[in-house]
Design a protein that fits this description.
This protein is an all-alpha fold and 174 residues long. The chain has six helices and two strands; from the N terminus they run H-H-H-H-E-E-H-H. A hairpin with a 6-residue loop joins strand 1 and strand 2. It binds zinc ion. Zinc ion binds next to helix 5.
Length: 174
């Protein structure tokens, strides 16, 4: 990742805050507004009319359609804007689904890699975690590696034999 985790976290917070503006009430309002053409704004019911038809219109649906087509101007910026929001929310949904897929892919891969390669010290057979602080160096764990370096990178089979013997003696003493 090129950016630091706290910067990305800040972005995620702002995204959550922005998207939080689209409350159920706001979405219902957008839906209601977009139901009507730009000519119908005078007829928008103050709150949740279920008729879906502005007052003063005749009840013939075909005629209504023809009438609205005749009176509706070519441009409908508010309707376009609302439809754009709808489309973008759909895109965000697909994008975030994809991001979760990618995240799981990476996490699962790391997990299976860690599980596949259980690393053990070639000298004391201790399992190492594979982290920077606890990794194999020349096939040895940190402690064995340091011991081996102290002995001037001694002949490995002999070094391992001696170290195992001294480790056993240590544990026997405890
Ligand atoms: Zn070791």
């Amino acid at each position: 990742m090129r950016r630091k985790p706290d910067l990305i976290l800040k972005d995620l917070e702002i995204i959550a805050k922005n998207l939080g503006r689209f409350t159920p009430e706001v979405l219902q309002r957008l839906y209601d507004i977009d139901k009507y053409g730009p000519n119908d704004y005078g007829h928008i019911p103050a709150s949740g009319s279920t008729s879906g038809r502005p007052s003063g219109q005749i009840s013939d649906p075909v005629l209504n359609k023809v009438a609205s087509r005749m009176t509706r101007p070519a441009s409908d910026p508010i309707g376009d804007c609302i439809k754009g929001l709808d489309r973008k929310i759909g895109e965000l949904r697909r994008m975030s689904d994809g991001m979760v897929e990618q995240l799981l892919y990476v996490v699962d891969r790391q997990k299976s890699r860690r599980e596949a390669a259980i690393l053990t010290c070639a000298c004391c057979s201790r399992e190492v975690m594979g982290t920077p602080a606890d990794r194999l160096r020349s096939g040895y764990c940190e402690a064995c590696y340091k011991s081996w370096i102290r002995e001037g990178k001694a002949y490995r089979p002999l070094f391992e034999l001696n170290r195992r013997a001294s480790l056993e003696a240590e544990t026997a003493q405890k």
